[in-house]
Amino acid sequence: MISRRNVIGSALGVAGIGVLGLPRQALAAVPDLFPVPDSRLVKAATALMESGGSPVFTNHSQRVYQFGALLLKKAGIRSFDRELAYLGCILHDLAWTPKFKGPEEFMYRGANMAGEFLSANGVGVADIKVVQTAIINHTDIGALDPRPEVQIVELGAVCDFNGVGVEFLDARQVRRILDYAPRLDCKNEAIATMDEEADKHPLGRIACKRPLFDVMWRNAPFDS
Ligand SMILES: [Fe+2]
User: Fold this and answer.
1) How far is the CA of 157 from the centre of ligand 1 (A)?
2) Gap from CA of 61 to ligand 1 centroid (Å)
3) Rounded to whole angstroms, how far apart are CA atoms 89 and 61?
4) What ranges in the chain are assigned the alpha helix state H?
């Protein structure tokens, strides 16, 4: 089994940690980005998400980790398993990518796919269940699971799609995150994907929230 105890302490700018897509030297120039764990599992999970064929959802997932980590910090939560948190963020919309869409509701399909991926990479059952819970819960605003590795996905997702919590972040932090993982055509692709999901599952968890999400996503404080 892989040991994954990358628990962050109070020092957020840990030396030697790289951010995906950026050379290590560049990290010093972007101090407001939250460090992404530099591990084989993180790289493999990111590659899996990228292979789904949606740069919009891949970038969204990377912003979810950044926004979620900053909002946890604002809430006073600085100690959590960074790798587990990142895995939930980067994989939470896997089943909304063109390659991995399927007949099941996307949060359940994504949780199952993430579980298979993590199990194949030697992750233990307890940690897999944390990631799966984060994926299944992330569309439920106000879900009750208190674990930060679960909360981060919901916090980051509602911030990036709905704009909830962005008012607690300074504009420079937000700009850094948008430069790091550009939104591209995020609103249009997300709304089209939501509509497809709701049409496919008219009694599903997305369909019942579509009227709310449609308004919130269109009016989120981002250009696209
Ligand atoms: Fe998402």
Assistant:
1) 5
2) 6
3) 6
4) 24-27, 40-51, 55-74, 82-91, 106-120, 125-137, 148-162, 171-180, 186-200, 210-218
Tell me the three state secondary structure of residue 196: helix
Decide: 167 and 78 in contact? Cβ < 8 Å: no
**150-165 pLDDT, tens per residue?**
999 999 999 999 999 9
Q: What single-letter DSSP state applies at residue 94?
A: G
CA 124 / ligand 1 centre spacing (Å): 24
Neighbours of 103 (CB within 10 A): 7
Q: 96: CA distance to ligand 1 center in Å?
A: 9
> And the tokens for 48?
């899996």
Q: Identity (one letter) of the amino acid at 7?
A: V
Beta-carbon contacts of residue 170 (< 8 Å; ≥ 6 apart): none
What average pLDDT does range 78-104 have in this prediction?
A: 97
Identity of the residue numbered 5: R
Ligand 1 centre from 205 Cα, in Å? Answer: 14
Task: Say which CATH architecture domain 37-185 belongs to.
Answer: Orthogonal Bundle (1.10)
Q: Rounded distance, CA 77 to CA 196, Å? A: 36
